[in-house]
């Protein structure tokens, strides 16, 4: 395989779940790969490339970023397959970071969903080159024309077909190349290029739009003169300008791909129809790594460093985009090299910064690079180096986490931290058995290193171990890895919301601890007055004892007992807060009074006062910002009201937030989708599964942010239903 940057193409496959991305990668492997990838029936063998489980344990849907390298037309093509489910958006972000172009995979049956439109807009914001592959054309409801129309409506008029499919009555698939002027037929005996078809291909509908798009984007004056004079443009020159057009990020060729009928799946057709043409487009139309803008760099002291040049002889700048663990090899890191050359046994600086908020402490380590390899199918092929522009697998980087920067020791630097979505679905767990407890902490630490969208937290108020995940599918995948990969079985338990208690009104309380059972007795009496403080007031203790009714040495004991009782609660076992306690009187005994006695008396006095004044249960309230397209604002506001929420304001989404949420149209769509941010205050107990419900309510186009807002009284009917 080639390793020079000009001979590498890094492509990320994106699209909604079920669009056929992984199946397409398998067919591309069958088209470009060695014959040992095919089984005895000459069908594409299931691929176990980096990131997947073994074939017999392969999940029904992808849950992680996967990498596979193939050779085509003298180039190395690195295919990065991303999960389509929104729960695994962190893996998608990693693929976008490592790639130089995106291939959007759209199902001809299901069309374009809202999440795909949002992702398209995000790619448009950074000018990432894109193309489209329309799959499932072998399905009875697969309609290329309708799917192309849906893509144009969603992504704009820059979407232009490069090949047109037609199906004959006997099941043969004919692809007409609008750019190449060739017609290719896929049938029972495989792929055949038909002779004397140039005139027919030139007359195909849609060719004019394709040629005009390439001429406009490449600004090729020779092609323009030929076209305006009525001469047919030279296909070779059109192909040469295709990369310029695609690289601008506003011209998007479309290819039909699919599985051949069973009768045509011989050795020559194992890759399905359109796979060869798609590889040709990637090789001829997608930009090389050197043409892709490189991320900005900073030094350890925070100063800005000159951007990386993409020079294989320059200083090393690389990034860990995926971390996984193999039971035999150990930790494996998928690394994209932006500058310099990565070699085995090199000493490198491993830097991780900017993710403290999600539980990843900043760190600077020096490590020795292990073996380098490139995955092809189920095999890892060793390589001697990985120059700028390449992607490789590095083994045994002990401290490197997903998102870390690898740089040279003499000039260390940091790549900017990824913008990752918040994990907003809490899942409380506990070890299934005593043996699992020993493995659980180690397993969670390793999973947190691999998955930047997973946050592990020990709630200090409830003492629960909580996994913050992106959604139900993400949570199930994490629990499955805990059990099957690390042998740490856990049970899901209900998530406990940390409630509190406070006093309803002013009251007085008397605490008596008087015991005499032989020997040293216990004697302590204290009288207190309590009153509620404003929300957030905490606790105040005021000593108003006069005349030495309680010796000064025992005043702190009373306060200690009151604080202990506040931590235990009174009504339902929740901590007390927002109280002022005044110690006004008491009694002591010269022999039987003690520190312990006055602690007990202080707690009893507080309980007596709260029985008289009444207890109010407080629940945590969140400040929630929900960003959705305008058409869903009414539905979101109605849904928040059913959650006992208060809408406190509306405002148009800021430009950056709207772009991340799918506001842009990526090259001339039918119109921008305006978005609004709904500001609300909602009880935390009503928001535990909101990430799932908002996704369903907004068809995958909504997002929200939450942060603590304070505590408010819980409605009495709900408080009365709490266990005493």
From TrEMBL:
Residues 496-614 form the Translation elongation factor EFG/EF2 domain. It comes from the Bacteria. Keywords: Elongation factor, GTP-binding, Nucleotide-binding, Protein biosynthesis. GO terms for biological process: ribosome disassembly. NCBIfam families: PRK12740.1-1. One of its GO terms (molecular function) is GTP binding. Residues 33-63, 703-724 are annotated as: Disordered. This is Elongation factor G-like protein. SUPFAM superfamilies: EF-G C-terminal domain-like, P-loop containing nucleoside triphosphate hydrolases, Ribosomal protein S5 domain 2-like, Translation proteins. Residues 616-722 form the Elongation factor EFG domain. InterPro entries: EF-G-like_DII, EFG_II, EFG_III, EFG_III/V, EFG_IV, EFG_V, EFG_V-like, P-loop_NTPase.
């Amino acid at each position: 395989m080639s390793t020079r940057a000009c001979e590498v193409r890094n492509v990320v496959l994106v699209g909604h779940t079920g669009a056929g991305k992984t199946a397409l990668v398998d067919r591309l492997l069958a088209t470009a790969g060695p014959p040992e990838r095919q089984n005895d029936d000459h069908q594409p063998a299931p691929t176990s490339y980096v990131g997947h489980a073994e074939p017999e344990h392969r999940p029904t849907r992808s849950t992680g970023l996967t990498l596979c390298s193939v050779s085509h037309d003298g180039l190395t093509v690195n295919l990065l397959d991303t999960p389509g489910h929104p729960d695994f958006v962190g893996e998608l972000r990693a693929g976008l970071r490592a790639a130089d172009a995106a291939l959007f995979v759209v199902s001809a049956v299901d069309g374009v969903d809202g999440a795909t439109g949002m992702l398209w807009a995000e790619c448009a914001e950074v000018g990432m080159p894109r193309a489209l592959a329309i799959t499932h054309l072998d399905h009875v409801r697969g309609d290329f024309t309708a799917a192309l129309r849906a893509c144009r409506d969603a992504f704009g008029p820059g979407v232009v077909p490069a090949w047109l499919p037609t199906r004959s009555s006997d099941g043969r698939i004919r692809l007409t190349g609008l750019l190449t002027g060739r017609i290719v037929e896929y049938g029972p005996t495989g792929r055949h290029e038909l002779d004397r078809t140039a005139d027919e291909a030139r007359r195909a509908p849609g060719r004019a739009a394709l040629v005009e798009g390439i001429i406009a984007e490449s600004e090729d004056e020779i092609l323009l003169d030929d076209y305006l004079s009525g001469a047919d443009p030279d296909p070779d020159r059109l192909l040469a300008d295709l990369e310029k057009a695609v690289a601008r990020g506003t011209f998007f060729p479309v290819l039909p791909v699919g599985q051949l009928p069973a009768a045509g799946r011989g050795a020559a057709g194992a890759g399905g129809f359109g796979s060869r043409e798609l590889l040709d487009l990637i090789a001829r139309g997608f930009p090389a790594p050197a043409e892709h803008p490189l991320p900005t760099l900073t030094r350890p002291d925070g100063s800005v460093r000159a951007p990386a040049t993409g020079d294989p002889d320059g200083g090393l700048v690389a990034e860990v985009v995926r971390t996984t663990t193999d039971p035999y090899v150990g930790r494996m890191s998928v690394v994209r090299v932006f500058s310099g050359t990565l070699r085995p046994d090199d000493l490198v600086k491993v830097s991780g910064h900017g993710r403290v908020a999600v539980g990843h402490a900043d760190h600077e380590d020096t490590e020795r690079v292990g073996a380098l390899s490139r995955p092809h199918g189920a095999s890892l092929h060793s390589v001697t180096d990985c120059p700028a522009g390449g992607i490789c697998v590095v083994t045994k980087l002990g401290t490197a986490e997903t998102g870390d920067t690898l740089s040279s020791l003499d000039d260390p630097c940091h790549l900017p931290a990824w913008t990752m979505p918040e994990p907003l679905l809490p899942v409380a767990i506990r070890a299934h058995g005593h043996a699992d407890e020993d493995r659980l902490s180690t397993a969670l630490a390793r999973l947190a290193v691999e998955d930047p969208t997973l946050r592990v937290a020990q709630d200090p108020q409830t003492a629960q171990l909580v996994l913050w995940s992106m959604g139900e599918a993400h949570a199930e995948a994490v629990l499955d890895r805990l059990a099957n990969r690390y042998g740490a079985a856990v049970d899901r338990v209900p998530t406990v919301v940390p409630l509190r208690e406070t006093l309803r009104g002013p009251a007085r309380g008397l605490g008596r601890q008087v015991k005499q059972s032989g020997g040293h007795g216990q004697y302590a009496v204290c009288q207190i007055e309590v009153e509620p403080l404003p929300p957030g007031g905490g606790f105040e203790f005021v000593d108003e004892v006069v005349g030495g009714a309680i010796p000064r040495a025992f005043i702190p004991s009373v306060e200690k007992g009151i604080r202990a009782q506040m931590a235990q609660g009174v009504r339902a076992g929740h901590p007390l807060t927002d109280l002022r306690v005044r110690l006004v009187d008491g009694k002591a005994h010269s022999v039987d009074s003690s520190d312990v006695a006055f602690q007990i008396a202080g707690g009893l006095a507080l309980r007596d006062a709260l029985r008289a004044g009444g207890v109010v249960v407080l629940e945590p309230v969140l400040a929630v910002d929900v960003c959705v397209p305008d058409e869903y604002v009414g539905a979101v506001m109605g849904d928040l009201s059913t959650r006992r929420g208060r809408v406190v304001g509306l405002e148009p989404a800021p430009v950056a937030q709207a772009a991340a949420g799918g506001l842009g149209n990526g090259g001339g769509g039918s119109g921008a989708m305006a978005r609004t941010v709904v500001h609300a205050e909602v009880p935390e107990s009503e928001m535990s599964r909101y990430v799932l419900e908002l996704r369903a309510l907004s068809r995958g186009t909504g997002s929200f942010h939450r942060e603590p807002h304070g505590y408010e009284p819980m409605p009495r009917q709900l408080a009365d239903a709490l266990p005493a």
